[in-house]
Amino acid sequence: MDRITENLVNNFVEQHELEQLEESKQFEYFVNYVTGSKLHRGSFEIDSLCTGNSGDAGIDGLAIVINGRLITDVQELDDIVSENGYLDCNITFIQSKTSRKFEGSEIGTFIFGVKDFLDDKPKLVHNEKIKRLKEIWETVIKNSSYMLNRRPNCKLLYVTTGKWFNDQNLKAVISSGVQEIEDSGLFNQVEFEPYGATELQKLYNETRNKLSSTIKFENKITLPDIEGVKEAYLGLVPFKEFIKLIEDDNESIYNIFYDNVRDFLGENEINSKIKQTLNEKKFDLFCLLNNGVTLVSTSLTPAGNAFTLRDYQVVNGCQTSHVLHQCKKQKGIENVNVPIKVIVTEDEDIKNQITLATNSQTEVKPEQLASLTTFQKNLELYYEAMKDQIELYYERRSRQYHANSGVKKTQVISIAIQIKSFASAFLNSPHLVSGYYGTIAKRFKDKIFNNDHKYAPYYGSALCFYRLESLFRNKTIDTKYKKLRYHMIMLARILSMNSVTVDYLNSSKIEKKSEDFIKKLKDEEKYLKLFELVISVIEKSPLDLSKNQFKAESETKSLIDTLNSLNLLSKTNQ
């Protein structure tokens, strides 16, 4: 490995606290991270991509991205397809070698493993991760009727630390393998990409940069000077330019919508009307009938009519963006002009005011939006106030803490992690946190992110997640329990507070008990003992630990019943 790549890998390992892994595994995680970040712009757990182990069929990483989101379980796939009403799929297979050579035999083994994975009846032995991803893939195929825009795209990434020289023999092996995969008829396109050190370095540097897009913005007016706003524009953007702002290289929609808890609302009345305008080919009327899209960017570089936006979010227009994406194959769509407002500011208060003022078309009431936005901001401030001993960062916006922020990835708590951890710990519902977190948020409507809630329970549940993940990384706790991690968070909270039931989340009692919970999680001796008790409950429960997922309420109840039968609650306070 050359010194530059080695330095980047070491930097990555430090950022993700993976020092305990052997070098080949560190490189595997590094490759899966940099390639995964190209495929999916939002936060994700690297471990969810890593498949390398015995029974990996020669595949070190596997990513299934649906509608711009990295999918890790079937429930998540079902939720997103149900919500969006369409399915754009990209599946990417990754093989990483620390060797500086591209070996024909190794490439052949990789391609064979991919073909076997895609086969109706795989012949190779598959480990648990490969089996879980195979189940997701089979569900994608069963939902092919939702593929309105295209069939799935398939990529095979073969990565070494050397340099690709277009060797004729290797190209022949690749061409033959790609042709066989194309002949399956499953894919819109199949690509094999050999990556060497140069490509890896470029990809890693891209993870350190914020999202940027360049469009031609000719029909615009400049808005007058506004306090707190660097610059602002109002105008019309042709469809072919607008799509550059919302789609990635794989023609999947970006995860760029400001409030990640709200999402595309599917076939509601408003979206049906937007689609009706397009179906009736009233392309010239679109800009008059639609309120348009509002983007907020932290910086903008103009070059004539070419505008480069960096670190931007769609704060209003999620519904319009998704419908246009759905209808992009419609003949004549290029005649659509999208009303667009571009605001350049770093002021969070202004962003929030714009979000509230412009979201009149959505099914979210203004008072709900105001409450949600205020709570999220205040929760972030609470995290900042708690950094005296342990630095955790609440990520309200996707990629808010990118690599150049100096924050370790392990310290970042995304909205998804916050929802799942809190619902598990304080709503005793770990069986309900699988799936897409936008849907999970709807399940717990009026039970999470309420303006009168105390912040300590949210922080405490996230700290519990952080501690547990660190114990898995360090092999202090066997990773076989990881599929039960949200159940473990629930049990840790119950044991720490000596009660299954939870006080009112706006009460001083819950705040005090949560602060005591946080103190235990800051003390290594105490939280190790706490998780030892958690594991003892799991081991003595009737749960079948060979299962991949635990989504039944009866399984949660079984754990609580086991805990009660062991009389551990009375012992915890001793």
Written account of the structure:
With 574 residues, the chain is an alpha/beta fold. It has three domains: 3-207, no CATH class; 212-364, no CATH class; 367-572, no CATH class. Helices cover 45% and strands 14% of the residues. The chain is built from 21 helices and 13 strands. The strands form three sheets. It has a six-stranded mixed beta sheet with strand order 6-10-9-11-8-7. The longest helix has 20 residues, at 366-385. The protein is globular. The model is unreliable at 361-368 (pLDDT under 50).
Secondary structure blueprint with pairings:
Layout: H1 3-15, H2 23-39, E1 61-66, E2 69-70, H3 74-84, E3 89-96, H4 104-118, H5 128-142, E4 153-159, H6 168-182, E5 189-195, H7 197-207, E6 212-216, E7 219-222, E8 231-238, H8 239-246, H9 269-279, H10 286-289, E9 293-303, E10 306-316, H11 318-326, E11 337-344, H12 348-358, H13 366-385, E12 393-395, E13 412-414, H14 415-426, H15 437-443, H16 456-473, H17 485-497, H18 508-522, H19 524-540, H20 553-565, H21 568-572
Parallel strand pairs: 3-4, 4-5, 9-11, 12-13
Antiparallel strand pairs: 1-2, 1-3, 6-10, 7-8, 8-11, 9-10
Helix pairs in contact: 2-7, 4-6, 9-11, 12-13, 14-15, 14-16, 14-17, 16-17, 16-18, 17-19
Structure characteristics:
574 residues; alpha/beta; 3 domains; six-stranded mixed beta sheet; five-stranded mixed beta sheet; 45% helix; globular
Brief summary:
With 574 residues, this protein is of the alpha/beta class. It has 21 helices and 13 strands.
